[in-house]
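Help needed: design a sequence for this.
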């Protein structure tokens, strides 16, 4: 190492040239009060004046970083991802852990490969513009839409929040969004298609009994009916347990209530009148399967193969649509199980349900309902916002624990 230039006269900011012949660029060695060791970094310039300016600016930045609770310890994007992943393993709440693992997967699939060895502090808005361009030509199955990339962006922000909490950075970077042109209406079903689905599902379940698929098809049938009558998210309905259900008495009869935990936290979901019958079918089916009442902490949608929640119904759902002669794609949008949530929202709004109450029911906002379902929000919906049914205590006996 050549002679060091002490820029501040106190040994905190040193500048030098390497003597090994590998780089003609100036290197900086910086020490900040309150931190251990030095931060070593290339100034990326052979001009001494530019190198001095770079080193002094970096010292000021690191000084305030340490003062704000940060550290000089350099961590790469991949190192922080691994640390974040390890921390999630200790999450005691299974439902929260499952949601976090989904977020983790979206971050790991592409961004860890791209940013792997980059210092977390060096990733700026410019790097993310370059990343989004890279992502549009690097994918596993289909070209990602801007909506898909924005969902990935939300997951990546979670990693940076973890980095802030651990003191590796002091603030979140400005991660640009991908422009979404127009409002993409969510894929759903027409009333005629829904009637065909409900009518044909019975035959589809029967046809599967000879193929050893009767159980899974029966479970999916109830899953579809419950989703279309509650508007729950896929992750919420998949992890609901018998103990999460209870029944209340309202002015127009008894209603089943589900206590769910999702991306917006914990909330109570009201089942449409009559849809408690689908839950009873599942309860009776499981009771017959076990020869006794199922345990209250057991998942309602339990896979017999894994003993855990079903991971996906995609293949069975598409099979059911084909059996019912329903196009999987409509108006350029692919129908998925999530389309049942959108069907629920469309039905409730077209019936004049309060947008405010519906937003609470679905764990979303009135603004999001207006954004995606504005074509079915009528003028009188606003007049109904303050209207709701009063709840009365239940007073009846039942064979089902969620009705007692």
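Sure. Designed sequence:
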């Amino acid at each position: 190492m050549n002679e060091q230039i002490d820029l501040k006269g106190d040994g905190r900011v040193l500048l030098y040239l390497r003597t090994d012949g590998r780089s003609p660029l100036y290197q900086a060695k910086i020490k900040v009060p309150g931190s251990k060791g030095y931060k070593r970094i290339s100034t990326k310039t052979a001009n001494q004046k530019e190198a001095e300016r770079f080193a002094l600016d970096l010292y000021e930045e690191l000084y305030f970083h340490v003062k704000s609770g940060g550290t000089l310890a350099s961590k790469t994007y991949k190192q922080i991802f691994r640390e974040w992943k390890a921390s999630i393993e200790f999450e005691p709440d299974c439902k929260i852990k499952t949601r976090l693992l989904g977020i983790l997967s979206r971050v790991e699939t592409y961004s860890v490969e791209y940013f792997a060895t980059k210092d977390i502090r060096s990733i700026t808005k410019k790097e993310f513009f370059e990343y989004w361009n890279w992502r549009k030509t690097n994918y596993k199955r289909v070209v990602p839409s801007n909506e898909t990339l924005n969902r990935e962006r939300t997951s990546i922000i979670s990693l940076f929040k973890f980095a802030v909490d651990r003191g590796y950075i002091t603030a979140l970077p400005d991660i640009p969004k991908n422009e979404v042109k127009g409002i993409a209406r969510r894929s759903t079903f027409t009333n005629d298609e829904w009637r065909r689905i409900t009518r044909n599902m019975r035959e589809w379940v029967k046809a599967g009994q000879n193929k050893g698929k009767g159980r899974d098809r029966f479970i999916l049938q109830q899953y579809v009916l419950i989703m279309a009558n509650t508007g729950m998210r896929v992750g919420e309905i998949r992890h609901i347990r018998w103990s999460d259900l209870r029944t209340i008495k309202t002015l127009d009869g008894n209603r089943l209530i589900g206590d769910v935990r999702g991306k917006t936290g914990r909330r109570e979901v009201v089942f449409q009148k009559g849809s408690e019958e689908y839950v009873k079918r599942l309860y009776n089916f499981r009771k017959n399967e076990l020869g006794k009442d199922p345990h209250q902490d057991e998942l309602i949608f339990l896979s017999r193969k894994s003993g855990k929640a079903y991971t996906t119904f995609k293949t069975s759902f598409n099979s059911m649509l084909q059996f019912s002669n329903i196009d999987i794609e409509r108006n350029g949008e692919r129908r998925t199980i999530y389309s049942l949530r959108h069907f629920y929202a469309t039905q409730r709004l077209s019936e004049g349900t309060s947008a405010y109450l519906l937003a609470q029911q679905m764990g979303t906002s009135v603004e999001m309902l207006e954004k995606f379902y504005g074509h079915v929000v009528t003028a009188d919906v606003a007049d109904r916002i303050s209207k709701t049914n009063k709840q009365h205590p239940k007073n009846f006996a039942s064979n089902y624990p969620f009705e007692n």
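Residues 77-165 form one domain.
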